[in-house]
Design a protein that fits this description.
Blueprint: E1 2-9, E2 14-15, E3 18-21, E4 35-36, E5 44-51, E6 57-64, E7 69-76, E8 82-88, E9 96-103, E10 109-116, E11 124-131, E12 138-144, E13 154-161, E14 167-174, E15 179-186, E16 193-199, E17 207-214, E18 220-229, E19 232-240, E20 247-253, E21 262-268, E22 274-282, E23 289-297, E24 303-309, E25 314-324, E26 330-338, E27 342-350, E28 357-362, E29 369-376, E30 382-388, E31 391-396, E32 403-408, E33 414-420
Length: 421
C-alpha cells in the first residue's frame, strides 16, 4: 500500500485528508480528514508537513489573533488519531511563525521559523525547536539573532536534517542596509550552533533564500533570489561544504528579460551527481514571468541546461514545485495566468538530459485553478495538488500525461502539499 497525504488550508482550519492507495491508476476517495481550529477564534494557517518513517504525519503552522501569532504543531498517526500537539508562545508573547517541519533518523521532530524578540514582530530571531517523537516533549530550543551588533529582522524559512542528525536552516537576515542569505547548522544532539554563513550573493541589494536541500555527503544547496541591479534579480544557487559552511560554488541565472528571476525549490537527483533548481524568470522583458528550471553538475556547478518555459495564456507563469523521476526526468507544476487574471494549473515533464518538454498539461479551461505541490511515484506517474472548484488533486500518467483520475474537495480551500510516505 502507498499512502499519499494532501494538506488543505482553509481560512480558519488546518485540514489533513489522507488516502491509502494501492494503485495510482485507480480513482481514490478520502479515508479521513482532520480540522484544527486554533485557540484565538481567528485564522489558522498550516505552513509545512512531513511524513515520518512510521507513516505518522506531522504538521506545523500558526494561529492568529489581533495582536499575536503562536506556533502549533500536531502529530497524527496514520489512522488520523492525534498522538500529540504542541504550541509555542515566544518570550515576547508577540508574533511567532513556524515555517517548516522535518524529522531526523529517530523520528524526532524539528520545527523552524521565526520568533519576535520584542513583541512587535519587527525584531525577529531564527528559532528551532526539537520535539521528542514519542510525546512531543521539548528536547532543545535554539534562537539565533543573525550575529550582527544591532540585530533586527531574521526570518528562517526552510530546513533539512543531514545523515548525522544535524539540522541546517536557511532564510534571510537584515544587515542594516538590505537582506542577505543566512544559513546556520545546528547540532542535532543539543542544538548547539556548529557554523553560520551570511551571503551577500550578487552584492547589489536584497537577497532572499527560499529553499534548502542536503546531499548524502552532507553538503548543502540553497536557492532563492539575489538583487543584481535596482530593477533586476537573479536566481541564485549556492553549494556549501557540510563541515564549515564554506562555499563550494555559486551559480546565478539572469533570464532573457533581465528582470525578475528567482529560485523557489532546489533538489539533488537520485544519482547524486546533479542539482536541480526550479522557480521563475522573466522571458521577454515585458514583465511577464516564465517557469524556470536549471540543472547543474554537483562537483563544479557547471550548467548542464537552463530553460525558460512560457505558457500559452499571455500572463505570468510561476513554477511552485518540482519533483524528479527515478530516471532523472524533471516535473514542474504551478500557476499559468491569462493576462494575470484567470489562471490554470500547468504541469510539465521535461527531459533529464536536455530540459526539453516531453509532455505538458493545463487545468480545465473554464475553471480558475492552480497547483502548489507535486509528487512522482516510482514509475513516473505525477500527482499535482492545488485548487480548482475547491481544493483539488490530479493524477497524470508518466508516459504521456493522460489524466488517470482527479479529486476535488468542495470546501473553499487549497491543497498546498502532497507527500508519499
Amino acid at each position: 500500500m502507498k499512502n499519499v497525504v494532501f494538506i488543505l488550508i482553509l481560512a480558519a482550519f488546518f485540514v489533513i485528508p489522507a488516502s491509502v492507495w494501492a494503485d495510482l491508476t485507480q480513482s481514490q476517495s478520502i479515508q479521513w480528514a482532520k480540522f484544527f481550529d486554533g485557540p484565538f477564534g481567528d485564522h489558522d494557517y498550516l505552513n509545512s508537513a512531513v511524513v515520518d518513517s512510521q507513516g505518522n504525519i506531522i504538521v506545523t503552522g500558526e494561529s492568529w489573533s489581533d495582536s499575536k501569532r503562536d506556533w502549533h504543531t500536531i502529530k497524527y498517526a496514520s489512522n488520523g488519531l492525534v498522538i500529540w500537539a504542541k504550541s509555542y508562545d515566544g518570550m515576547a508573547h508577540g508574533p511567532d511563525s513556524a515555517k517548516d517541519v522535518i524529522v531526523d533518523q529517530n523520528n524526532d521532530v524539528i520545527v523552524v521559523g521565526w520568533s519576535s524578540r520584542d513583541g512587535t514582530g519587527n525584531n525577529r530571531d531564527y528559532l528551532a525547536i526539537k520535539y521528542a517523537a514519542l510525546n512531543g516533549n521539548v528536547i532543545w530550543e535554539r534562537r539565533y539573532n543573525g550575529g550582527l551588533p544591532n540585530p533586527e529582522w531574521n526570518e528562517a524559512g526552510s530546513a533539512v536534517c543531514d545523515g548525522m542528525g544535524n539540522i541546517v536552516i536557511t532564510g534571510y537576515s537584515w544587515n542594516g542596509r538590505d537582506f542577505d542569505y543566512l544559513t546556520i547548522k545546528l547540532s542535532g544532539y543539543d542544538g548547539k550552533i556548529l557554523w553560520t554563513r551570511r551571503d551577500v550573493c550578487l552584492g547589489q541589494g536584497n537577497d532572499y533564500a527560499w529553499d534548502i536541500a542536503v546531499h548524502p555527503d552532507g553538503n548543502i544547496a540553497v536557492t532563492g533570489n539575489s538583487q543584481a541591479s535596482p530593477t533586476n534579480s537573479d536566481v541564485f544557487t549556492t553549494l556549501y561544504r557540510s563541515t564549515d559552511g564554506t562555499t563550494v560554488w555559486n551559480r546565478n541565472y539572469d533570464g532573457p528579460g533581465q528582470e525578475s528571476d528567482g529560485g523557489r525549490v532546489v533538489k539533488f537527483d537520485a544519482s547524486g551527481q546533479f542539482v536541480i533548481v526550479a522557480g521563475y524568470a522573466d522571458g521577454l522583458g515585458d514583465g511577464n514571468l516564465d517557469y524556470f528550471a536549471g540543472k547543474y553538475l554537483l562537483a563544479s556547478g557547471m550548467t548542464v541546461w537552463e530553460k525558460n518555459y512560457s505558457g500559452s495564456m499571455g500572463g505570468n507563469d510561476d513554477a511552485k514545485d518540482v519533483a524528479l523521476g527515478s530516471d532523472g526526468s524533471v516535473y514542474l507544476t504551478g500557476i499559468s495566468y491569462e493576462s494575470n487574471i484567470a489562471a490554470d494549473s500547468w504541469t510539465l515533464k521535461c527531459s533529464a538530459t536536455s530540459g526539453v518538454i516531453l509532455w505538458q498539461k493545463r487545468g480545465r479551461p473554464v475553471v480558475d485553478d492552480g497547483a502548489y505541490g507535486i509528487a512522482v511515484d516510482s514509475v513516473g506517474n505525477a500527482l499535482i495538488t492545488g485548487y480548482g472548484q475547491g481544493a483539488s488533486t490530479v493524477a497524470y500518467a508518466g508516459s504521456d500525461g493522460a489524466i488517470m483520475w482527479s479529486y476535488s474537495d468542495d470546501r473553499n480551500g487549497t491543497f498546498y502539499n502532497i507527500r508519499f510516505d
